[in-house]
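Duplicate of earlier report; Acyl-CoA dehydrogenase/oxidase C-terminal domain-containing protein input re-posted below.
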Amino acid sequence: MDEMELILKESFEKILEDFCDNDLLKESESNGVPTQLLETLEEFGVYLIGIDEAEGGSGFEKKHGLELAIIAGNYALPIPFTALLFRNWIAYQEKLDSKSHLSCGPFDQRIKINSEEEYLANGKIENIYGYTKGNDVLVIGTNERGEENLVLLDASQLDFKIKHNLANEPVYSFELINHSPKLVKLINPSVVNYYFSLQLLLNLAVATGALKKIVELTIEHGNTRIQFGKPISSFQMNKNNLSIMAESVKQAEIMTRTCIESLKDEMDQQYYLELMVAKLKVCEAISTATAIAHQIHAAMGFTQEHILHYYTRKLWSLRDEYQSESYWSQEISRFVLAEEKGLWEIITQ
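Output:
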């Protein structure tokens, strides 16, 4: 890590340290995104990390933005940081005009585009996280020839349905019936896969940061909570559970950081396999670590006065994004079965 990278991470962490306490997290659940924090980070230029300075960005590489996403997860940052970061990456990469009035849907979903009828769009998009009201929505659509397109949907024509996830964040969905998009642009499927890998990796980065935090909180609680005259972390059952928790989270962190470090501008099949395995390991770690954290904290971890539940509810919400563990297990199986090489060769190459 060079000096500029270190300054970037330390400065970002200092801002979050000053803002992200229990009171802010509680307030943001009731009142939405905290405006002052949102604007402070915008002034810092954090949403433009990974975009060349010549293009109006803040410089650095995308992997540095992903490292910041880990820090964001570690502080339960109550703003759609990864959604804004991804939006800007795509907007600048594709040279879209409405950069500041754009949100992105999940790139693992598809709508239908009828190129014979003025590119009318039909279909449904669900589980849009980090949407800003009034923004147009960028999604992926396929035409009757099976070609993939970037499709910019007009916000004025969208009838959103809103629900809230376990972290009490708004999640948007909509259905399209003969929608007239603002833009339809052919795109190579490999580029779509690369963009989706960025979305997925941002999700894993935030989850990794939050997982590390709940390990810290649980160890601290175990060392300070006294029962029968000694810390509860000294009881054998809790020792075993803490070691299981730490091991699971460390495995997830290693997988996520490996994917971040090996990120390139193009995605090959081996990288996609690593990403699928990382998603699976992070989901497993969420299930394991959150259960143990709440077991050791007991009822205290669910109270408004304690910060733990802000992390665990966020983790459960992140686990639900971009398909389930069973889906990714099946995808890994399909990938391995489709390869000419044997399983051992795939793993060890």
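Residues 3-94 form a domain with the Butyryl-Coa Dehydrogenase, subunit A; domain 1 fold (CATH 1.10.540.10).

Merging into the original ticket.
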